[in-house]
Amino acid sequence: MNRFVNLLKDLEYAGSDEAKLVSFRNYLNVADGIDSLTAIAYLTGKKPKRAISPVKLRLWALEVCGVREWLFDECNKMTDDLAETISILLPVSVKKGSRTLDYVVKTYIEPLYQLNEENQHELIFEAWNSLSKDGIFIYNRLILGNFRFNISDRIISKALSDITGIPSEIISQRLATNRKPSEEFWKELVNTNGEFNQVKKPYPFCLASTSGSNLTEDFTPAVWFAEWNYKGIRCQCVKIDEKLNLFSSEYEILNDQFPDLISGLSGLPSGTVIDGVIIPANDGVISNANILQKRVNSKKPSYKMCLENPVEFIVFDILENDSCDIRFKKLSERLLILENITGKLNSLSVYLSQLLEFESVEHLEILRKRAKKKSTSGIILKKRNSMYRSDANNLEWIKFKTDPYKVIAVLIYAQKGHGRLAGFFTDYTFALKEKGRYIPFAKVENGLPEEELLEIDKFVKSHTFERFGPVCSVNPELIFEISFESIEFSKRHKSGVTVVSPKIVRRRAGLSLHDVDDLSIVKLNLLGSNTA
């Protein structure tokens, strides 16, 4: 268990994917097979369901923490995390032993689901007496069902690949079976004697370079194709020996989450690999992006859920045809092959990306500005003779984003950050005004120069008038200009909307509360007169 706890600490403070990869690889080198599989399951979202209610756990913790109830609750307000509060307040004099993650799961977690309340009480006390403080914190999170610490499947597969020599794509496919951690599964996972080419892996994705919103080059239709840059989940569909897999750009298999697309793609001939993007849409009309999140978060969505949350797959390239790698053919040639194949699918949810007609750079600029009305993030230009490359700086595919939306907002909440800035208020919630009140509109993490960050930290500490756990309510005085890529209706947010990629543009010291944008006007201008 201590190894798993240390892994979580390392991952929390890792500043890059490369650092996370090193941390996870080091863990795999010292942990046994079942512990590794259990850790992988938890880190990829397969956490145990809630075994005990927070109310019960709080009452049982009060029996042994040795503090009065009011003090316990005040501490809990500061951490805003029952699991952490208990781990901090439990007596330190109890001797703690070393337990493996698998032992803790099988001894102190899995039996809780079958035990009565009295026996649950005894087993949890036994677990607390057997674990370190950090171990108790993670254990509490697991039994409360609120353990959240995801890392990319790609990092996990790469780490396993580094220590086994098995291609990461094959590791990813073997992990996708979702089987329970066991010695047998571990042996199958790291088996180097099998044929690696039994299941076709996706190709490295070709990524476009980003050039902001400045169309300055001489782009002509004789040299370039233009198409909408759709917001969604980039995927490769791979079909070999009648086996079809839908891979995300993180090399996760998404077959279970999108069974309707698998059905629509089933007509692809064997030996085909196509590239495209999954978007939330019905009959070509793009809808709320939250649909994609619902589908991805559901392991096996029901027929009803698929019907109520429709998606479509827009195809824009083909990498393999008739089991032959054609990535190095000209894009214009690949698109002719792709058009022929997709035309035979007979599926309303899978179709070819539309090529946009244009005559000049000025015409492209008009299209880029029109992208928001099309619910896309801009346009993407591709050279007609371009190959499908995975170069880091690909100048043959270039995307031009739409201009971000901007609003004037006021700071109303602040929260301390993590890692190096853990002692400073770096996470901010900004509000717009509506009927004399300030309504939370966007939450932004850091993004300011350190000098200005320290100035705001000082303001928060001297202007806090109320606390909600780690969140401080501050006097609405500091005015900021906030940008974001898109805005959508949301029933979960008090403002009635959610914004994508909010960022602080700058502090507007010369403005007052009178200048803060009105929420109703923002919704009317950006979303129209429709209601959620």
How would you characterize this protein structure?
The chain has helices at 2-13, 17-30, 33-43, 54-65, 69-79, 82-89, 101-109, 117-130, 133-144, 153-164, 168-175, 183-189, 259-265, 290-297, 303-308, 331-342, 361-370, 450-463, 519-527; strands at 209-210, 224-228, 233-240, 243-248, 272-279, 281-282, 285-286, 312-321, 324-325, 350-352, 378-383, 397-401, 405-416, 425-434, 437-445, 464-468, 471-474, 479-484, 486-489, 497-500, 503-507. With 532 residues, it is of the alpha+beta class. Strands 13, 14, 15, 16, 17, 18 and 21 form a seven-stranded antiparallel beta sheet that branches. Strands 3, 4, 5, 8, 9 and 10 form a six-stranded mixed beta sheet that branches. It has a four-stranded mixed beta sheet with strand order 1-12-11-2, covered by helices on one side. A hairpin with a 2-residue loop joins strand 16 and strand 17 (471-474). The radius of gyration is 26 Å and the shape is globular. The two termini are 46 Å apart. The mean pLDDT is 87.
